[in-house]
Each structure stands twice: as structure tokens, then as C-alpha cells.
Design goal:
Elements: E1 8-12, H1 15-18, E2 47-51, E3 57-61, E4 71-73, H2 88-102, E5 106-110, H3 113-116, H4 127-142, E6 146-152, H5 158-164, H6 170-186, E7 193-197, H7 217-241, E8 246-252, E9 255-258, H8 263-286, H9 291-299, H10 310-316, E10 321-325, E11 329-332, H11 366-380, E12 384-388, H12 406-424, E13 430-433, E14 456-458, E15 470-472, H13 474-484
Parallel strand pairs: 1-5, 1-13, 5-6, 6-7, 7-8, 8-10, 9-11, 10-12, 12-13
Antiparallel strand pairs: 2-3, 2-4, 14-15
The structure holds 6-O-phosphono-beta-D-glucopyranose.
Length: about 500
């Protein structure tokens, strides 16, 4: 009963939201380094400042494609949250000690592509960057913490985005394959758990390309094809380099419910869910496009540019385990008019009247996690890992450094209980849990610092003020108790 022995308990971060040191140690610029901060609660989006072909300068909402020929730049008079982030670059030894103190035996983190290849497509890697991560992985191992490394977490070298429109171009795929060759070889024996591409089902600025990658359907599907090939290549190569390697896919996997039992709502939910998430899981687990997708592309007149061997690669690079992020759920209505929209990472649904939300409008739904785990397990029958989960909230640090985040403890307790029920009562093969932003980091969606997920508070605000000191929140001690009891002590 309970969680299996050896269950992986830890925390998750992404380099572009945590690391900082944006041009230190030979690192080049990434798209995230050119993204300003926004304000999620007041609907002020993150932005790109661009040099235009006519020599002028213009600013664009990051959720929209920027015009062809525009190049995103880093403006010296603008504050960019990723440049310092919460400075893992300068604090990594102490942060790993904190992870160990919390009882973690796994650390989900990502490698900044531009720390290894400053332009993304350089011929030779940057040794200083390679050494940086090697030291971190060794330190983790010394503390009994298994690194779980995401090869690409919302990470696109700025050069590849500006000049090649990111994943739209095959050139980016080839550059990514080279990156995989180098890091998988270098960290052989040091890292055995890998995730290929974070939230492969999210096609926006950081994950895809800057220009017509998203609004132009042909480009969007081509970019997806290249991402799938990159993901499959990572799996195949990891297995060739070290058969001990285990590689998982990673999908943004909120749960959706039909708004009512009206068959129109049920159909709306089904088509939305397969378009938004199941398509991506099906391709990475089964190795081919599902029939409805093939027909949809045909009807839309979209033809993917393929090269010989592509289809075979997709079939050969299927994953070892299924990892996903879960924060919230949504309802899908065939007639959404007049219904309140719900918040969430790229959520498209309407508000579920049965659920409470956080300050950003994300629904809180622990039973949704159990439903999710069962749906995925029933469909694929491969091991599952929850690699993001948590609540973004505004925390108050008291003068003595303490943070009383009982709302976060409640969220974690309820979600871990749901996981436990899925394991104990439903027989789901769940192998690990790495809550999101175990230490405070920059929000990906809004670029804010005030939206905090961590069990460790970092003194940093939305404008770059703060001394970066770390303090343990009440939730830190709660998670420590949970982790050290292998998920038994949940009260
Ligand atoms: C996921 C991403 O979508 O959600 C993370 O993988 C992100 O990078 C997380 O930070 C939470 O979203 P946000 O916008 O609150 O940071």
C-alpha cells in the first residue's frame, strides 16, 4: 500500500525562469531573454521589442506572431526578468542543499540550449556551459538526488528564432539534434532520466518560432512535425548512447469536462481534448499521427514537408514514460457565449461553477488529478510522472523571514492525496512527483515574480529588486514531512 519504495519525490524548474546569468560563462541569447515582464492579473502581456526591416523599432504582444523581417532584440533600457531570474547560476550549491534538506531524491531542471551553443547552431559547444551543468549533476548525485533533465524547456536560441523562425525550419531541428548528441554523450552515466521537449503541445513564442509559426496553419503544423522529430530523435539517441537512459515525453495536461451532459458539450470536450493534448501523447507513445489528424490536415490542404526516414524515426523514438504538468481543469461548452472564461496555461475553456480558483483564475481541482492519472494510464499503460503541479500565489514574507502559506499546504495535501488514491486504489503506475517551482522562479506566462509557487521564498520582485536571499516557507516543512515519510504523513 502507499507509494512504492524508490518513488521519486522532488521539485521542478526551467533554466530560463530560474538560472539568470543570461550572458555569463559564454551563454548566448535565447528568446526568453528578449521577453519583458507582464502583469497577469491585469491582462498586461509580456512583449518583444523588435528591430524592424525599415530601421524603426516596434513592440509586439508576445502571444501574437511578430511580422516577417522583425528581429527581437534586448533593449538596454528595459528590464527583462530572465536575465537574473532567481539566480540559480550564482546560488546552485546552496539550492541543492535546500533540496536535499527537503528530502528530495529527484531534481527536475533544464539545460539552457544557449549556454551550450550560444547561437543554437554553432559547430562546437561551449565547454564552460557543459562544465556548469556537469558540476550541478555531480552535486545532486552526491546528495542522493537523481537529476531529471529536460532537454528543451520553452527554450529557443534567439538567433534561430529571428533568422529561421524556430521550429518552422528544418535547420532548427538539425541544430537541436546536434545539441542532443552533445549533452547526451557528455552526461552519460550522470543523468539517466530525461524529458525531451517540455509541454510539446504548447505552440507559442518560446516553444515554436517568432514570426508566422503560430498564426499560419501550415507553419504551425510544420513546426509541430519538426518538434515531434526532435523529440523522437532525443529518445532514440538517448537509448543508443546508454541503454539505461529513460526518456519521457512532457505534455501540458489539464483535465477538461463537458460543461453539461448535452451531447454537443461532450463532443466539444472530446474534440478539444484530442486536439489540445491526446494528439501529442498519441504521437509520442505510439509513433504515428492518429487518423483524425491525418484527415484534418488533408481537409485543410496542409502537406508536411518530410524527408526520407522521418516516419521511421517517429516510430523508433517512442517514449519510456509519460510525464505531464497538472495545475487546473476547465469545462468545455459547445456554446461558450455568455459563460465566464477560465484561466490556466493556454486554457481555452469556461469556468466550472463547482470549483474555486486562485488569484489568476486557475481552477483548483485535486480530484481532477486522479481523473487525469486514470485517463492517461488507461490509454497508454506506461509509467507516469507528474513533473509540474502547484499553486501560484502572492506570498508575504514576515520580517523574521517566515512565510505562512497555509493555502499552498492545502493545495499540496489535497493533490498528493489524489495521487495516493490513484496509486493505491486504481493501480496507476505513478513513478514520481516534482511540483513546479519548488523554489520561487519567474512565471513563464506573465514574467512576474509575485506569482510564486515555491516552498522556498526568494527575495526578488517584479522590477529586479531584492537580495536573492532564500527562506523556507511553512510549505517547505510540510513537504519535508511528506517526502521523508514517502507520502505517508500527509496531515
Ligand atoms: C507550465 C510550464 O506551463 O506552467 C512552466 O512548463 C510554467 O514553465 C508553469 O512556469 C506555470 O505557469 P506560469 O505561467 O504560472 O509560470
Amino acid at each position: 500500500m502507499g507509494f512504492p519504495k524508490g518513488f521519486l519525490w522532488g521539485g521542478a524548474t526551467a533554466a530560463n525562469q530560474y538560472e539568470g546569468g543570461y550572458i555569463s560563462g559564454g551563454k548566448g541569447l535565447a528568446v526568453a531573454d528578449a521577453l519583458t515582464g507582464g502583469d497577469g492579473r491585469n491582462n498586461i502581456p509580456r512583449k518583444f521589442i523588435c528591430d524592424m526591416p525599415d530601421g524603426s523599432r516596434a513592440t509586439f504582444d508576445a502571444m501574437e506572431d511578430v511580422p516577417e523581417g522583425a528581429k527581437a532584440i534586448v533593449d538596454p533600457d528595459t528590464y527583462y526578468p530572465s536575465h537574473i531570474a532567481t539566480d540559480f547560476y550564482g546560488h546552485w550549491q546552496g539550492d541543492i542543499d535546500l533540496m536535499a534538506e527537503m528530502g528530495c531524491n529527484v531534481n527536475r531542471m533544464s539545460i539552457n540550449w544557449t549556454r551550450i551553443f550560444p547561437n543554437g547552431d554553432d559547430a562546437e559547444p561551449n565547454e564552460e556551459g557543459l562544465k556548469f551543468y556537469e558540476d550541478i549533476f555531480r552535486a545532486c548525485k552526491d546528495k542522493g538526488i537523481e537529476p531529471l533533465v529536460t532537454l528543451n524547456h520553452f527554450d529557443m536560441p534567439l538567433h534561430l528564432a529571428n533568422e529561421y523562425d524556430g521550429w518552422v525550419s528544418r535547420h532548427t531541428l538539425e541544430a537541436f539534434e546536434h545539441f542532443c548528441d552533445v549533452v547526451l554523450t557528455r552526461y552519460k552515466g550522470l543523468v539517466t532520466y530525461w524529458l525531451n521537449i517540455n509541454e510539446i503541445n504548447i505552440d507559442v513564442y518560446m516553444t515554436s518560432g517568432l514570426h508566422e509559426a503560430n498564426t499560419n496553419k501550415q507553419n504551425r503544423e510544420q513546426a509541430r512535425w519538426h518538434r515531434f522529430l526532435g523529440a523522437a530523435y532525443a529518445v532514440k539517441k538517448a537509448h543508443e548512447i546508454d541503454p539505461a537512459n529513460k526518456v519521457g515525453l512532457m505534455i501540458a495536461h489539464g483535465v477538461s469536462y463537458p460543461y453539461s451532459c448535452n451531447p454537443e458539450d461532450v463532443w466539444c470536450e472530446l474534440t478539444n481534448a484530442r486536439d489540445y493534448k491526446w494528439f501529442f501523447g498519441d504521437v509520442e507513445v505510439r509513433g504515428y499521427y492518429p487518423s483524425w489528424k491525418v484527415l484534418e490536415l488533408k481537409r485543410a490542404g496542409i502537406e508536411l514537408a518530410k524527408e526520407p526516414g522521418d516516419d521511421e524515426l517517429l516510430r523508433e523514438g517512442t517514449v519510456d514514460f509519460y510525464s505531464f504538468s497538472y495545475y487546473n481543469s476547465e469545462a468545455q461548452a459547445a456554446s461558450p457565449e455568455g459563460k465566464e472564461k477560465v484561466g490556466g496555461n493556454m486554457s481555452s475553456g469556461v469556468k466550472n461553477p463547482y470549483l474555486e480558483t486562485n488569484a489568476w483564475g486557475w481552477a483548483i481541482d485535486p480530484l481532477g488529478l486522479r481523473i487525469n492519472l486514470n485517463q492517461i494510464w488507461d490509454r497508454y499503460q506506461i509509467p507516469l510522472m507528474i513533473v509540474e503541479n502547484g499553486i501560484g500565489a502572492i506570498d508575504v514574507r514576515e520580517p523574521d523571514g517566515s512565510v505562512h502559506d497555509s493555502y499552498r499546504i492545502d493545495y499540496m495535501r489535497d493533490h498528493i492525496k489524489a495521487m495516493k488514491a490513484a496509486v493505491e486504489e486504481d493501480g496507476v503506475d505513478l513513478i514520481g512527483y516534482t511540483p513546479w517551482g519548488w523554489i520561487d522562479i519567474v512565471s513563464a506566462g506573465t514574467g512576474e515574480m509575485r506569482k510564486r509557487y515555491g516552498f522556498v521564498y526568494v527575495d526578488m520582485d517584479d522590477d529586479g529588486n531584492g537580495d536573492m536571499s532564500r527562506s523556507r516557507k511553512d510549505s517547505f516543512y510540510y513537504m519535508q514531512k511528506v517526502y521523508k515519510s514517502n507520502g505517508e504523513d500527509l496531515d
